[in-house]
Amino acid sequence: MSTSPTESAVAGTVDYLDQRTGIAGAVKGFARKIFPDHWSFLLGEIALYSFVILIITGVFLTMFFVPSMGLVVYEGPVASMNGQLMSEAFASTLDLSFEVRGGLLMRQIHHWAALLFMASIVTHMMRVFFTGAFRKPRELNWMVGFLLMILGLAAGFTGYSLPDDVLSGNGLRITDGVVKSIPLIGSYLSYFIFGGEFPGEDIISRLFTLHILVVPGLILALVGLHLLFVVLHKHTQYPGGGRTDNNVVGFPLFPVYVAKAGGFFFIVFGVLAFMGGTMAINNVWNYGPFDPSPVSAGAQPDWYMLFLEGSLRLMPGQTELVIAGYTLSLNVLIPAVVVPGLLFTFLAVYPFLEAAVTKDKREHHVLDRPRNVPVRTGLGVGFLTAFIILALAGSNDLIATHFSLSINSITWVFRIALFVAPVLAFWITKRICLGLQRKDHELVLHGHETGRIVRFANGEYIEVHKPLADEERWLRVNYDAHRPLEIEPREDSRGVRRKGFRKDQALQALSKFFYEDRVEPVTPLELAAAHSHGEHDQLKGHASDSALAIVGPDGTGVDDHSLDDREQNH
């Protein structure tokens, strides 16, 4: 069979590279890698594709943006800005928006891609958290994802601060206050960051370097590490028929997922291009160049930083202490450093905390159903509730103006809700999960209700149930119901106090919080007992002995000489 010149050229190139790099074996193994198919796995792909689009549009924007705080008098197509003194950064943003062909479109695609990037990272982490995909051997990959989220926040903050408009300038002013609230070193850090007293003359150029070089470089490195871990550990999969911790049920990367991924990338790009072309965002000419004097309602950062804004707004202002001549600004330190620190610390350490209270050393590749881990699910919902309340608090002025409410009343409602709502959300979610587990338990033992009532010849009535299919039953019984830890006594046989007892005691108390309330999966003995109906079992095969009156949902009775249903659960 003859080959075309193009095919010969490609084959020759591939052979040349393989002989010098040995890449064929790696490509072959990677192309045969099996990946499961589920829509929630696309969340991570959306984050990756959004980042690629950010790089593409960012390269375009970098060619026209001037990262300088040098002052110029603007003369251009924006009439409202003519004659105003502004930084070169703000002036170049206006030129980019109105005088560069496609510049405004690229700006808006870039901004929407940044919002989608953070949204997909957050929802991807939610999927990983609620399904337990962070368990061994993926604890380090969870930390990689956590760092990617932090870097995404840094990329977003450094990006929307670059235009040097009133909105971004106010954000930098808040940043300066947060940094200065850090005890002892705060003022030195502020001087180092801004190159002098706020706002200084270097902050835009420094943010520009971080935004286009340092942060993207770190994100690229961590994305590569994240994907490497996915390949090494193999992909997690949802529980189902034939899926175990020892296999992956799905399709090979090539050609199935290569085609799907390519198509999905262009879908994401198309959606972002449509949003960039039709939905205005960050119209800096409406705000004007940075000036610390204008103060107005409706000034909020992008959604992923809104929780920090809300935390600052909820904190009472009269909370400053003077210790040895140093002012401790608790009104800024607690909401802007302590509260985010607690939230992020919870996310970072949770996988290791759960591993410690379960003492589970096995590898897990099949995901949990959230209902089967009620405390974890409740903690996740409580965390999200706190985040949502803080985000809403960051818009308390808009809520007040749009609904004609008192901003003070709204603030107090959110202050109380921040402490009450997460606890209530945790308790409600936990009870719902336990209720769903009990429902699964009953379904396994007794099957689905059919609405049919059977009357025996002796006058006894039973309700007919439809047994679960094998896969449906397996899905509801194949999970681990961890129990609270059992620890060694305080003292050994010689009466000597055991080393490490306090640590074990603390872990035991924590494990009781996690696993004291639980629903054990149905055992084979329980299932066999539920399927044994005593004298009813003796009636199998004797349909001619007596007719049955079947009472349906409508209350009517019909004769039924088929006794197959007598074997079913009731």
Automatic annotation (TrEMBL):
Which segments constitute the Cytochrome b/b6 N-terminal region profile domain? 13-239
Which intervals carry biased composition (Basic and acidic residues)?
532-543, 558-570
Q: Which UniProt keywords apply?
A: Cell membrane, Electron transport, Heme, Iron, Membrane, Metal-binding, Respiratory chain, Translocase, Transmembrane, Transmembrane helix, Transport
As for membrane topology, the entry says: Multi-pass membrane protein
GO cellular component, as recorded:
plasma membrane
Record-listed E.C. numbers: 7.1.1.8
Q: Which reaction does it catalyse?
A: a quinol + 2 Fe(III)-[cytochrome c](out) = a quinone + 2 Fe(II)-[cytochrome c](out) + 2 H(+)(out)
| Renumbered residue ranges of the record's region Disordered | 529-570
| GO molecular function, a single term | quinol-cytochrome-c reductase activity
Q: Which cofactor does it need?
A: heme
Protein name per UniProt? Cytochrome bc1 complex cytochrome b subunit
Per the UniProt record, the source organism is Sanguibacter antarcticus
